[in-house]
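ok so i was messing around last nite and threw this chain in just to see what happens. nothing serious, just curious
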Amino acid sequence: MPFNVYLRRGKEESLKRRHLWIFSGAIHHIDGLETLREGDVVDVYTSSNEFIARGHYQIGSIMVRVLSFRKEPIDEQFYIGRIQNAFLLRKAMGLVDNSRTTCFRLVHGEGDGLPGLIIDIYDRVAVIQCHSVGMYMHRQMILEAIKQVCSSRIDAVYDKSSQTVPFKANLEAKDSYLYGSSKNEYTVLENGNSFYVNWEEGQKTGFFLDQRYAREVVAQYSHGRRVLNTFSYTGGFSVYALKGGARSVTSVDISEKAVALAQRNVELNFGKDVNHEAIAADAVDYLRDIDSNYDLIILDPPAFAKHHKVLGNALQGYRRINQRAFEKIAPGGLLFTFSCSQAVSKELFRTTVFSAAALSGRQIKILKQFTQPEDHPINIFHPEGEYLKGLLLYVE
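result:
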């Protein structure tokens, strides 16, 4: 049976609006706290003893991640139902059995009603990441649900949670196959472009699936342009730029391994006879030293702020790299700039970019705004799920 968590008076309002996080400051007391373990399922009650939610208990500022607003069992059937709903959404969006795109996100945490769980599909392999102890403890039920829902479409399920579960929980998590096995490196398609993916050694689950739409727009505007792709990682934007007819593309990343993979992905799609240069360098330093050699620049850095405590430093980082890009880009150039920091709101990111534009002294126009694609859905009651922000800017 779940443990009981009781809220302070008036702290149930956000839950009545179906928000999925309960913060430590909202909790009055917990029955059986001395035996409660992180990851256990708890029932949440108002100060007037009214049931309001059921979820996973965790240690930290977010103390409960809500799984349901009903007293339903959190069992294998629960996970089958949620993952089935997620699968049907992706199918309706044309991502399932798509001959041109064989990789997509199947479960996106709160957006699919499963806070703390990510499931990415790479052709016939599912890669899961648990961001909470509760989800990690339920991996076997999640595995059975994936096998039930995806049936013959999946040959293997790989758990890559060692770097995402809370380290203070002392779970000693090790990445491994929960079901089946596969070669370390796989080739997948995204909009007809081929990419090597290595979920065992790569960042995140192996590929940044959330930039699928933005990469298409880069291809649309790259024809005849000199493109600089900073923080290039596996070279996704670089491949799309070349597919769009870019005159030249330069991929810059601080990781030599990432730069080598970007070059391999370019060669996978175009062979060696293509105008692409891969450079292992700090992107911020590289932007400082270039002349007006590029008329399309992509800024897609890693999350500068993973929590609000470092928000100030993160905003300075975003302003600095955008200002340098504004100052260096050729007249009539296009700047694609992004933030994947959840702690940086859409409005705050836009204000920071505006500040960089003012400091650069250039005239700037907004052409497009970006968010994450439909396989990274945002729960309307949980606006924090809108983590990816982007702008396409024209620099006169």
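not much to say yet. The chain has three domains: 3-68, 76-189, 208-395.
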